[in-house]
Amino acid sequence: PVDCSFSRGVCDWKQDTDDDFDWNLADRDSGDGYYMAVPAFVGHKKDMGRLKLLLTDLKPKSSYCLIFSYRLAGERVGKLRVFLASRKTAPVWEQSKGKDERWRTGKIEIFQGAETTNSITFESERGKGKTGEIGVDNVILASGLCPED
Predict the structure, then answer these.
(1) Domains in the chain and their CATH numbers?
(2) Cα dist from 75 to 70, 78, 96, 128, whole Å
(3) Is 93 within 8 Å of 106 (Cβ atoms)?
(4) Ordered DSSP codes for the chain
(5) Which residues make Cβ contacts (< 8 Å) with residue 30, sequence separation at least 6?
(6) Where are the transmembrane segments (predicted)?
(7) CA pair distance 81, 61, nearest whole angstrom
(8) Tens digits of per-residue pLDDT, 66-89?
């Protein structure tokens, strides 16, 4: 299992060098650790920032559950997408506007075929808004199917 909260920095996170801006560490309001964020005002509309989590030792022909916290705060802040390396073209998860500024939980089932997924990418796309941010935290990859709520 992979447990990737940003406070401990245990995971192999990489900023994409071909994108338009970087994700940054941000302090949690509670003073309890950090999360990764992209403020709404960074870059130009449609600019992208990608944060890649490199995965090693995933077993072929098995399933995993990716669980993460995310927040889309602010008016027209943009989009958050998740891509798996094995299927680069279409995101496996996408969210644009949050109903409110609360943190929510995202879950994605990852089925490994003969080829294993070697990275997961969180992509932030800049929207029209000037305030707010897109945040990601507590990324956990557990073996087995995702639990029901």
Answers:
(1) 2-143 (2.60.120.200)
(2) 16, 9, 10, 8
(3) yes
(4) -EEE-TTTT-S-EEE-SSSS---EEEE-TTSS-EEEEEETTSS-TT-EEEEEEE---PPTT-EEEEEEEEEEESTT-EEEEEEETTB-SS-SEEE---SSS--EEEEEEEE--SSPP-EEEEEEEE-S-SS-EEEEEEEEEEESSPPP-
(5) none
(6) none
(7) 25
(8) 999 999 999 889 999 999 886 567
Q: How far apart are CA 139 and CA 40, in angstroms?
A: 22
CB 27 within 8 A of CB 34: yes
pLDDT band for 46, please (50, 70, 90 cuts): very high
Percentage of the chain lying above the pLDDT 70 cut = 92
Entry pTM: 0.89
Q: Which two tokens stand for residue 106?
A: 């995202």
pLDDT above 80 for 109: yes
